[in-house]
């Protein structure tokens, strides 16, 4: 999520409100290619120095990240942990890199990027793209999970009157492809019927 610098990554709620999420997932056999956009808004009347944090593991690789605040676009340069630590040592005057290195052990494996100051009542749109190897489940199924840390918290939708209105801010589209065919899909929320894109049922969308 998007956090104010100085708050802990594992606090119960992010410091900056997540307003909307759009996620497009293409699953080819057991690899998911994820393209997501997250819109955050600073609803408080003070500016916040912000940092985006996304949990990763050995099966997840972030390949594209950029953030847009008004006319400003921030694009990440992706480094391996060891390379980032070497850069930090070589540029000891870069406070943000030192801060990330000092907190690394507390956070665990994460993708982190400083975004600068977000003024009051201003939005930042974050585009995050990654690939993830999915584990094999019983029956030959692949399971994809959107990280729970990136779901909007209910308290941030207090001004929205119903669950139906809240769901308008969450949009997922999933494309499934397999040379073995797509038999069915199970989603733990309301969704459209599975639609096959070819007569061989090797490609489908929901």
UniProtKB/TrEMBL annotation:
InterPro entries, sorted: VIT
Span of domain VIT: 2-132
Coiled-coil region(s): none
Record SMART domains: VIT
Name the UniProt record assigns to this protein: von Willebrand factor A domain-containing protein 5A
